């Protein structure tokens, strides 16, 4: 039992070190502003990101992206907490089942958020913006 505990502890430690390993930051964040603006469908301006579209689709996509990011971070934290609870359970069956449930619920939450992200993106890509016409214009409006 102690060997299994040590193997689990070493595995969690190695995986956490691999995840948290620092990358080359100079190349990684070279175009961070442009990539962040492009990631949320905004144009890069001199002072920051600007929303030239101003559409409901763009705003909804931004809100869903931020929500998914927050839920993803919380789920990863809960998976780590569940793993630590599992490692420190010392054979107590109720503690083990609680730790397993924590990890399972966090993974289920990640799957639900991934599917929600897919459904929202699919729906937003299938909807077309309404044409914008100036006052009195009824033909040749720009979408």
Which short descriptors sum up this protein?
67% helix, 143 residues, two-stranded antiparallel ribbon
Describe what you observe in this structure.
This protein has 143 residues and is mainly alpha-helical. The chain has helices at residues 2-19, 25-28, 32-39, 56-87, 93-126; strands at residues 43-44, 49-50. The chain has a domain at 1-10 and 54-127. Strands 1-2 form a two-stranded antiparallel sheet. The longest helix is centred in the last third of the chain and has 34 residues, at 93-126.
Strand order of the largest sheet: 1-2
- Binned, the helix content reads 55-70%
List segments where confidence is low: pLDDT < 50 over at least 5 consecutive residues.
none
First and last CA, distance: 66 Å
Return Rg in Å: 23 Å
- Structural class based on helices, strands and sheet pairing: mainly alpha
Q: Which of globular, elongated, flat, extended, rod-shaped describes the shape? A: elongated
What does the average pLDDT come to? 74
Q: Main β-sheet: number of strands, strand sense, barrel status?
A: 2 strands, antiparallel
Report the β-strand fraction as a percent range.
under 5%
Question: Mind sketching the topology for me?
Answer:
Blueprint: H1 2-19, H2 25-28, H3 32-39, E1 43-44, E2 49-50, H4 56-87, H5 93-126
Antiparallel strand pairs: 1-2
